Description:
By secondary structure, chain A is mainly alpha-helical. Helices cover 79% and strands 2% of the residues of chain A. Chain A has helices spanning 2-33, 37-63, 67-96, 109-113; one strand spanning 106-107.
Amino acid sequence: xxxxxxxxxxxxxxxxxxxxxxxxxxxxxxxxxxxxxxxxxxxxxxxxxxxxxxxxxxxxxxxxxxxxxxxxxxxxxxxxxxxxxxxxxxxxxxxxxxxxxxxxxxxxxxxxxxxxxxx
Amino acid sequence: xxxxxxxxxxxxxxxxxxxxxxxxxxxxxxxxxxxxxxxxxxxxxxxxxxxxxxxxxxxxxxxxxxxxxxxxxxxxxxxxxxxxxxxxxxxxxxxxxxxxxxxxxxxxxxxxxxxxxxxxxxxxxxxxxxxxxxxxxxxxxxxxxxxxxxxxxxxxx
Amino acid sequence: xxxxxxxxxxxxxxxxxxxxxxxxxxxxxxxxxxxxxxxxxxxxxxxxxxxxxxxxxxxxxxxxxxxxxxxxxxxxxxxxxxxxxxxxxxxxxx
Lengths: 119, 157, 94
């Protein structure tokens, strides 16, 4: 019985690793391929959110019910909370510095900022 | 008071997770250090809605599950764009209304938008966010309205 | 074990790809983004190394690295924002 449980666990974590790695590699490819920093932010988003969380989930499955899996849960939660904050900080700093995306289709920034002058 | 107990429980759970010790003497030291931290937080007037967000509804966990599904869907969409030979980029900066009533609600909504690949919150002003979207389908106003409604449900006010 | 090694190898490949962007730039924001992503991948690699070498202590290092990575990203951005005061970078002209 233990053997089948171990096998199921290994298969489940293997799938999680494989899907997570696929997203990580696609995201890393996007970091190289995409044309400007605004588009690359989204590639980094793919790596930071779904890729990282799936790898952490696979490691939690490998660890089972131990202290290690609680620590991994802590890492996952921490990445989940901080990665959007860091991404937003990069986007906001780039916007404040005056960078604008290539080939903008629609720009409603005036609707949000109104007549504010940039600092 | 509820905030103080909430913070103490959270701190002690963190201490147990990181140390993994269950000897009485060490447990006592852990409790003491948590109480000291609690005293410092009280003196720094940190026991508010922001540091100890126990005012949020427990449905937050369900919302995280739903958000996970959304993240997966949009990650697949962004992956398709990256893997296409001619990348179909339609970059746009759009204004998204934020209907939440509290600061915490705004933070959760803005972070949820950023967590979803394909959209990033760039600037925030009261009641409205400036969002950068990678493609036409990522900039779907219906999707933002749906997410905003769900966030407004879990914030207590 | 083979699975963990293969995962670590693929993770390493992804890190190298992010490193290309880190060196290529061209703006400082590209580099900060690449550093942040590289840090996330390092956290994952540290966790995997803990499993491969069967030393759970590596997870503590991974937690610490995740914390420092976040603080460092915010600190670098804040430094560049207030030192350059929103001036246009010469490489960012479009």
